[in-house]
From TrEMBL:
Residues 56-199 form the Immunity protein domain. This is Immunity protein 43 domain-containing protein. It comes from Iodobacter fluviatilis. It comes from the Bacteria. Pfam families: Imm43 (PF15570).
Length: 219
């Protein structure tokens, strides 16, 4: 059985704490990119609000940043996509994950100018059922809904190296990584990530509603 870790946000140079402000667009206009309805795009609305399953990313995408000093290797861009550095995107291709599409983007500033020396990708994941991932008998859940966990155990036969819990533990969502892939990321000097031992991570029972934060900052 693999040992697993939760990937949590870490504050360091180039990786400030707080919300990650980027905009993923299929067209760009410097005057309207924040007010032109980007929130209606499928990778922001999600399948329920969009009305159909989220379609594949189009071939031309713009990732707009208002802070060109960002140096994150991976961050959540919304509830339905991640932003990956070129380094992270290269590493992830060597492992079994639930990412189903990783696409390059044009990384630009608020004026539409390319950010020199930085290449980014966006990725989306395939939902996993909790029965596929969790040992429900060994795990300890906060409430009867079996969505929010106090203690989480992965099934012995589960063999992914990286997956997310967006659809299985939506309040506490984050990426979970195998010990093998964690070691690879650490060798490569991945920035802005802490690795929390899943076997030791326990959440307070009081943190059982959508208005409460987990004890870590999810990626």
């Amino acid at each position: 059985m693999s040992k697993y870790f939760v990937m949590a946000a870490k504050e360091e140079t180039g990786c400030p704490s707080g919300f990650y402000y980027v905009y993923l667009l299929n067209t760009f206009d410097a005057k309207t990119y924040k007010t032109g309805g980007y929130g209606k795009l499928p990778w922001y609305t999600g399948p329920k609000r969009y009305g159909t399953p989220i379609p594949p990313f189009p071939s031309d995408l713009f990732l707009v940043t208002e802070n060109t000093k960002y140096e994150y290797d991976i961050r959540s861009g919304s509830s339905y996509f991640y932003v990956l550095s070129e380094k992270f995107a290269s590493i992830i291709s060597e492992y079994k994950t639930n990412f189903i599409q990783i696409s390059p983007v044009k990384y630009i500033d608020k004026n539409g100018d390319g950010v020199l020396g930085k290449s980014y990708f966006v990725g989306r994941t395939k939902p996993l059922k909790k029965e596929e991932v969790f040992d429900l008998h060994a795990s300890k859940f906060v409430n009867e809904s079996n969505y929010d966990f106090e203690l989480l155990k992965i099934k012995n036969e589960f063999n992914f190296d990286l997956f997310d819990t967006r659809y299985t533990a939506p309040i506490q969502f984050s990426l979970i990584i195998s010990e093998k892939m964690k070691a690879h990321l650490e060798r490569e000097g991945i920035k802005g990530v802490d690795f929390l031992d899943l076997d030791l991570l326990k959440l307070n029972k009081d943190q059982s509603t959508s208005n409460e934060k987990p004890t870590y900052d999810p990626i």
